[in-house]
Write a structure and sequence with these properties.
A four-stranded antiparallel beta sheet has the order 2-1-4-3. Mean pLDDT is about 85; it is low at about 150. α1 packs across α2 (about 55-75), α2 runs antiparallel to α3 and α3 runs antiparallel to α4. By secondary structure, the chain is α+β, with helices and mostly antiparallel strands. The protein has four helices and four strands; from the N terminus they run αββααββα.
Length: about 150
């Protein structure tokens, strides 16, 4: 019995949410993740720091995996458990990259004499997308019908 047109509504909504979230996470990787503000002799200088250093690279790898999983699903139709698992792993990589970024990868947010380091918008965008990707992938995995051997 073909159930491709009778998927539950929540599964369809989550399936549409995954590529949107992956694209938003990719945009988050392009935004600055940190802002370094230095005050020297009354001169205020601000520098934006991107994601491509330290553990931020892990987050970018997770975003790339999410985009690849979405492209696979788009090209081959239903990706099945492999695609759903790839989304969960991608979300976990983005979460690990953002979680480790402020402790090991980037500069820890702090304020000192003449300088301030703060997190930028890209960091928060990717962190939120990580949560959505993990949740959406788990929902897809748990709500997918199990295939029996011999069925295609």
């Amino acid at each position: 019995m073909d159930t491709s047109s009778t998927h539950p509504l929540h599964r369809r909504i989550v399936a549409a949410l995954i590529p949107i979230t992956a694209v938003i996470a990719a945009a988050g990787c392009l935004l600055p993740w940190e802002r370094l503000r230095v005050l020297v002799g009354g001169d205020d200088q601000t520098t934006s720091i991107d994601v491509l250093h330290g553990s931020g690279i892990v987050a970018c790898a997770g975003v790339m995996l999410a985009l690849l999983a979405c492209a696979y699903r788009l090209w081959f139709g239903q990706a099945g458990r492999f695609g759903d698992l790839a989304i969960v792993v991608a979300g976990a990589l983005v979460a690990a990259g953002t979680g480790l970024y402020t402790t090991y990868g980037g500069y820890a947010p702090r304020q000192g004499d003449g300088f301030t380091i703060s997190l930028g918008a890209g960091f928060f965008v990717c962190a939120a997308c990580a949560v959505v990707l993990i949740a959406a992938g788990v929902i897809q995995l748990l709500s997918a019908p199990l295939r029996r051997s011999g069925q295609s």
